[in-house]
Design goal:
Mean pLDDT: 94
CATH topology: Arc Repressor Mutant, subunit A
Structural class: mainly alpha
InterPro entries: DUF433 (IPR007367), Homeodomain-like_sf (IPR009057), WH-like_DNA-bd_sf (IPR036388)
CATH class: Mainly Alpha
Organism: Leptospira soteropolitanensis
Protein name: DUF433 domain-containing protein
Distance between the termini: 34 Å
Radius of gyration: 13 Å
Number of strands: 2
Length: 74
């Protein structure tokens, strides 16, 4: 999934947080809802105007970001 075609970031929208293009729906909000147990279908019902591929782009973006991080052992 090419998340760049579905997501954007601008300092003028939510202080530069990544959002679903042409919305003010932040990627972290979608991920939080998924983490809280909401299904993709429930998120789509609660957020008219977005598509399943937008949610998949949020997941793909988070995977991309996390794959470049390292966790220091404590």
């Amino acid at each position: 999934m090419d998340y760049k075609s579905r997501l954007s970031s601008s300092p003028d929208v939510l202080l530069g947080k990544p959002v679903i293009k042409n919305t003010r729906i932040a990627v972290d909000l979608i991920l939080e809802r998924l983490g809280d147990g909401m299904s993709i279908e429930e998120i789509l019902e609660a957020s008219p105007g977005i598509e399943k591929d937008d949610i998949l782009a949020c997941i793909s973006y988070s995977s991309h970001v996390i794959s470049r991080e390292s966790l220091l052992a404590s």
